């Protein structure tokens, strides 16, 4: 063991760096879904589509800025602006037109509404952005690289990957935690998450909270896509692949727990990175292995509380 | 609806399927696939009675399909392969079921999804054996010892699928009416009450789960012997989503629902693909949205409502 | 554009589709009647053929999912070439009509679509498809339904090495020459490399192509160390961990047969982190990504195009043909044609040549399906860049072009220099031999025997 460590210690360090940035990306993919699931109790399959649309919108806005010859630094706030736009435009639309109409119906119907929406959005996205991969990498170029020492060697990392992604993920985590605990709107959301009926009885406008929450979730999904857009190439089918990962995170984390999503993302991110270094064939199944292991030990997820049994 | 009416209706529907397959040769294949998926959806329906949605049942379908593909080189006989593959799927269902019936709702759905995705990854990983996404082509197989021409084989598979559909349909109908079936509904409403009465929610769900895996396995075997080519895509999560889609499209209220839904789904997909090759997905999504918003009982529920209205008038 | 694709004839189709939503008895009857009328249009496969009113071609391509980056350009090329053919009077005076189907939903759906194309649309030929799984599934089906089928883009060498078909043909090369030529080029360009790492997509093509490359490498240059074998998820968007590991390992060569959005992302992220400075990349499919990645792909790396598909081919057989195609395609679709458009052109040209051959053999009489199929065997036809011959086993013999990237002021993306055009028969496994067995019999001399590289002429 000691031998192995001394040989691979440096590599472990590199893997940890990779794992951290990849965890940040995974957290951003899943946190919106987690929030929506917590409040609406709907597993939103269209989350993957919102992620893809957020990415496409951000790339389009970035390309537009570059084409207009606007300063490169604007491409960074453009990511957030694009995501917010997608959230504010699509979130209320979906919530009002579709989800509200199946409120209180069987969970499977609610789930399938989002599945149907996913199918529609997949094709719509293709009609708008076509099938050729889209990317706008100004933000990565803008920030340049950081050299990380590795023995006698140095390994270049992009500052975007090392600082911006984890930074925004951390901001989101802290911001959300603060919002949910310290603001009135946030506490209303928590109240609805914990007990919808009781919250209603206390005079909380659950409909408003739901709308707010879904919009926020949509914007976060879009932000996940937007943050990935400077390095990833967006192609048809991105949504379908995103959704599986975010589902695994939400189920592992426990219902609607933001901190749970963060810890799960960290587990998966690090697990994947170590897999790539030491057992590459396992990389693809890491999220599922972690999920199954966690649920074996804690059936309600990492941060979930066991549901009280209704009689 | 009386028992006799249901039997007559089932036979009439089977005759209609045969008639349609005879009148329109290329539909024979589509209808066989639809019935095969209908079998798997019958299992989804069973779990839906307990309020549980499996987002990974394509696992059992794909498992049986691959079992047939691998088994066909040693035992090239459809009538042996089919029960073997289905029982294999049921055994897998038992093993997985022992684990997943401890969970409810989202966790139940997600664990099923995760396990089917693991199976999907395994099919890719063991490339040397499975040929990954290229898939496996089935060698020629006999039917009751007879080597059939492709035409006759197509008919044999359709009839086999029909027989299975009628048989399993009747079985599930009986099962749901039995105490075991009634107990499933108990899981949905108040599981604790069920247990106060001395029934174990887990064993009730496990029995249904194994039966559903068996049916998905039978469907997968028919599917493999019909399309004669299996790929890992059979186990991808969207394939499982499709099964749940069909369950709701057809209507979860009756054993007719899965087959009605599967036929409607396959036909919609084929016609949508023929009309607008690059937006069939959107059309399917719209159809599903309309059904959920305006006819949550599915096609079956819609048909019954229409019938009831006509009787009332 | 949709109007062109939807066959105007089938006026009963919309009724059928819409009536699926309701199940009243009347609607069901109407629907059945409508479907029945479609079936009546059927014809027996071997009936004595009269000259048809039009030649219908079913074309399976990806219109959804990640592979639509090839599928949609393929369809665009088909639309353009069918238009051009029809303007010139069609084939034997008969106009042509393409009917497109999406491969996206998977094999079991595709097999149904194949039957529909034959039995309901009565297509005369089928072009299928991009997915190797679809080709493996439809080659036996073509024999069963006796409809000539061109495997227009799929790469798996297994189709004709594991099976014999009367009606299926491939008017282009397969994975073996595509990968082997890149290996030969690498051995010549960088003879002293000692270690290699592979980053391929985790699906059949990624595994198959690595098998071919590794087998060839072990035969021609044993002792090269394989530093890492990485198979990221198909559709992966983040390669940063893989890249870090490669940066630390410093292999001399990085091989990746990745394509589409995955390849774009891999190239960009490798460039951002200067991996291109540490290792020489071999990217046999990079031609299809050049215009999108632009100068993120630096000079000095080895790229290919699954054939000799290159709009700046150093010595095309018919320079005017290539220039006209490139120009027309650019004008109509605002992009440089990539290899899948060349593959589509080859299918169209093979079809035209086979019809002409069969017509001539029959003294102008219209060929049956079997006669048309027979015409493909041994057929020689022009591609956009050279000539292709379909061997007796149905496999096409197509030259392979590999080059090294170079940046010029003329294009906003790298182009190829030091181009080598490998003659098809030197890099393709002979009839009746399995690729992996044949690769083990290669001799190191073949590296020396390869043609001289041709530099890019500005």
From TrEMBL, chain A:
Keywords: Amino-acid transport, Cell membrane, Membrane, Transmembrane, Transmembrane helix, Transport. Belongs to the binding-protein-dependent transport system permease family. LivHM subfamily. The lineage of its organism: Bacteria, Pseudomonadati, Pseudomonadota, Alphaproteobacteria, Acetobacterales. The chain crosses the membrane at residues 20-43, 50-67, 73-94, 106-121, 159-180, 209-228, 234-253, 284-303. It comes from the Bacteria. This is Branched-chain amino acid ABC transporter permease. It is found in: Cell membrane. It comes from Teichococcus vastitatis. Its main location: membrane. It is a multi-pass membrane protein.
From TrEMBL, chain B:
The chain crosses the membrane at residues 33-51, 58-75, 81-101, 155-176, 203-223, 243-267, 279-300. The keyword Calcium does not apply. It is found in: Cell membrane. PANTHER family: ABC TRANSPORTER ATP-BINDING PROTEIN (PTHR30482:SF17), HIGH-AFFINITY BRANCHED-CHAIN AMINO ACID TRANSPORT SYSTEM PERMEASE (PTHR30482). This is Branched-chain amino acid ABC transporter permease. InterPro entries: ABC_transp_permease, LivM-like. Keywords: Cell membrane, Membrane, Transmembrane, Transmembrane helix. It is a multi-pass membrane protein.
UniProtKB/TrEMBL annotation, chain C:
The keyword ATP-binding does not apply. Keywords: Amino-acid transport, Signal, Transport. It holds the Pfam family Peripla_BP_6. It comes from the Bacteria. Residues 54-398 form the Leucine-binding protein domain. The keyword Cell inner membrane does not apply. InterPro entries: BCAA_transport (IPR051010), Leu-bd (IPR028081), Peripla_BP_I (IPR028082). Belongs to the leucine-binding protein family. This is ABC transporter substrate-binding protein.
